[in-house]
Amino acid sequence: MKKVLSIMAVAAVMLFAGKANAQLSIHAGYQSYSMTAETPMGSSTESNDGFYIGGSYNMEAGAGLSVAPGLYFAYVEDIMDLRVPILINYGIKISDVRLSVFAGPQINFGVAGDMYDKDLTAPLEFSRFDLAATFGLQLGYRNISIEGGYSLGLLNRWSDAPSSCSIKTNQLFFGVGYDL
Question: Residue 175 sits in which domain range?
């Protein structure tokens, strides 16, 4: 899985590296992090608020399409994650205003937090790795943008869960960006 994602990232960079219209951007904002546990007894969801900060490199492909790999640090309560989205953007621009939709895979890696401490979460064991489907909207004016989106966790984060149980994580986010 890691090899496939690495090859996809390298291919995307090589494909778009020759384009003259590439833009480095920084982003920061609010996020609501939710964790949903499913068991035979029912489901339970817990949500917490936090923030994210990071950057992306938007590479134009033409006809309103672009690819934007990024790297973000996210913090919620006692959970710290690194997130690596590879988003496909489609946008229209009228004068200095642009409206874009984006979607793509996002790799989440848990850096630190109580949920990864085996002594605190016993008998549960949480996976540090997650793959998410991310999508959203962005509205920009010149070098400043506002964005909102959702990341839907696709993998079971409860690594030693019985077959009928799972824990999945999702993020709702709103933020601002600045093109350098």
Answer: 2-179
